Each structure stands twice: as structure tokens, then as C-alpha cells.
Amino acid sequence: MKFTFFISxxxxxxxxxxxxxxxxxxxxxxxxxxxxxxxEALVNEIANYRGINISDxxxxxxxxxxxxxxxxPKEYRSYAYRxxxxxxxxSQTISQPVIVASMTQLLKVKAGERILEIGTGSGYQAAxxxxxxxxxxxxxxxxxxxxxxxxxxxxxxxxxxxxxIGDGYEGxxxxxxxxxxxxxxxxxxxxxxxxxxLAAGGKIVIPVGGVNEIQYLIVMRYNNKGKLISQxxxxxRFVPMTGKAQx
Length: 247
What we know:
Elements: E1 3-6, E2 11-14, E3 17-19, H1 36-47, H2 57-65, E4 86-89, E5 92-94, H3 97-107, E6 114-118, H4 124-131, E7 135-140, H5 143-155, E8 161-165, E9 178-183, H6 192-196, E10 198-208, E11 215-222, E12 228-236
Parallel strand pairs: 6-7, 6-9, 7-8, 9-10
Antiparallel strand pairs: 1-2, 2-3, 4-5, 10-11, 11-12
Helix pairs in contact: 1-2
């Protein structure tokens, strides 16, 4: 493992992955400088993962910047850079990193886009999107998780992430329409309010399926005729969407 330091630029290159502290949202937070080797190893594992092709370098760069260990409870931080989901309390999990990368890649986000996220959870997915220059509006139904994630994201300097505590089934009308929508919990059917809040030409990435059913990750997008079409990707396992989705 070799580091090359350009002191005048405060620029670090790690095995082809370049991390410029000026590019992070708040480079002065110590978390961005912790466990860099672990982040590099995780990025390499994701880039070479069999079964799910992650080829978008911007997605890999964002994964490499976010200090995932800060988004999990202290008792699980030694496992933070394994490519696996982890408990975050309240019967919720932080998703497997390769799934985070895959869903982000499927969204095909661009800097400056407005993204609605349903299911803030740990806040990790929102941070990855923020690192890609997106303006993120994220909703969490579990108040304790929402408050914890909002505080952490603020501490890390993610000023382009806005957290709301509420039922994600209804979306966040005040800031609609959204260029892209990502859902990190599984409803049995795609909520109509989310479709209504999607901008023309937009895209939704969402897992769909019941608790005891096979869930599938689905990409919904508007084609050039303005028709919303669905593309099934692969089977997944997410926590169920609660609230109105279960009524």
C-alpha cells in the first residue's frame, strides 16, 4: 500500500483512488481521515464484486469518502467496512455497501439533482448521494433514528441533506418534484404519492414485495413518450415499509 502526499495541495492518492479533502463536505471532521485503508479495501471489493457490476467511478469515489463506521453503533464499528448489512437499532439495518452502490448507480444521479430518499435509517445512503453533489430530502419514520441521523449528518457537514421525521409513503410534497427517488424499505406496492412527486424524465429505484415474499429491486422511469415503465433488477431483502404502507 503506497501513499503519495502533495503537502501543498493536501491531496491523497490511494491505489488509484484520489481523495481531495477540499472535495469532502467538511474535511475538518476527524471521521473523514479515519480508517482510510478500510474504505479503500471496501471500494476495491465492491468494484470486483461478482454478480452485481459496479462500474460508475463517481459512485465508488463517494463510497470511498463516506466514513461508514460513524453511521453504525459503536459495538459494530469493527465490522463497518465489511460488505454486509449491520444492525442500527429499532429493528433497522444499514444496507450492504454493494447494494448502496448498486442502487446509487441505477439512479444515475448528476450533481445538483434533487433526490427524495424514503427511509433515512443510519443516514449513510444520504451521505453517499450528498458526496455526489445531490440535494437530498430524506424521510425517516422512526423518530429516534431520524434525530440521530440528522445530528450526525450535520456534524459531518452534509448541509445538502435535509431530514424529516414522518411517513415516507406520502413523500415530501413541499419540495417536489424530484429528479430521482430512492426507497430503502420495501412496500408491497409502489406508493402512488411517490410517483406523483417524480419529475418528468425522472427515475425511482425501489425494492417491492411483502415480508414473506421475494422482494425485487425495481427501476421505474419515464420513457421518451412520457410513459412510466418498470424494469426488474434482482431479488433483495429489505425491511418492510411501515406506516400507511401497511394499512
